[in-house]
Amino acid sequence: MFMGKRKLQEDILSNKWYYSFMKRLSNLTISKPQKLSMQRARCASKETLSNYYIELGTIMTQNNLHDQPQKIFNTDDESALQTEHNPNRIVHDIVVKPQSVTSPRSSNVTIIGAGNAFGNAVPPYYVFPGVKFDRALLLDGTPPGSDGQCSKTGWSNSDIFKTYLENHFLKYISHDISATPLLILFDGHCSHVSLTLQDWAESKNIILFILPPHCSHILQPLDIGCFGPLKACYNREAQLFMHRNPGCKITRFNIGQMSCSPNQKGLSAQNLTSSFKKSGIYPFNPKAIDTTELVPATIYHKATSDEATESTMNHSHISQDVENTLNQPDQRNGPSQELSKSATLTIQQFEFTISAPKEHDILSDHDESNSQPLLLPLENMHPDI
Length: 385
Fold this sequence. Notes:
The protein is of the alpha/beta class. The protein has one domain. It has 15 helices and seven strands. A seven-stranded mixed sheet has the order 4-3-2-1-5-6-7, sandwiched between helices. The radius of gyration is 24 Å and the shape is globular. The relative contact order is 0.17. Mean pLDDT is about 80; it is low at about 305-325 and about 330-385. One of its GO terms (molecular function) is DNA binding. Pfam families: DDE_1 (PF03184). One of its GO terms (cellular component) is nucleus. This is DDE-1 domain-containing protein.
């Protein structure tokens, strides 16, 4: 405008100006912002991550795990595959409206995956919707060693997660109970929280470490670099299936077969090792997380003690197993005030470590920005629990 090339009444930021501007500044690019829920944005703060790495570093130092990547595992059951896939992008004429036939939407099929910092993956464990588990049909074409079961919704719960660890996870790892403890990191969703899991972990010399709530997108290795490629590869397999089988639809009986190759590519040794490194777990690096990931949390105020107390009173996502266990008297020694007091303290700690509800849960708006990571089993927990 100063040079007289543009009139005052004309638009200043025209398309010509934009393309010239992008051409001059080669360091700029175009990308679609990542969707971030309010809970994730609020809880992924510097204070939360600082406390998490202090706690994790202490545990790894005490148990000599800094140089034993084969002993550090991450397990997650947030990967849900649907019969209705997302079509890939295609090149087409501008006058044509592209369409892609997909299968009807039905219940989810959950895959529980696990892998360690050394790059070894545990065969997947499938949770199918339904009541009767037909192993021959549902697990046909799945990766070798795969197993699974059914649930009413197709989602995991505390009983399924415990069964997975006891009967499937331990089958495929090398763990000497009398040697160095095994560290398992997982999110604190209510489907994982169970007091009976603590006794099992102690008996197997396993440390269960719950990640900070709503921070799995930056701290959980499987979420960072494994499940994304898995789902992208599954969508391609589903698209090929629909092209090769006109008139057919994808059901829970062929999801296992179509997820075989995606699971092996998603949980590859390279993806696992790079994901553990990017999350700062192994090699242990508290500064591994890019500070730009924590910027959204700066717009939220810190929760006061009154807000934290109200959040605890109104928490609606405590595992039913925890409530039932705490309400029952000690069957061996009878009810005692000491047990009741210890159980009350335990439930308060569980309140602040339960992670973001998944798509099938109701989201709560309470502030968990000051939550601390919970180490299970708790050293100061009452021995009767």
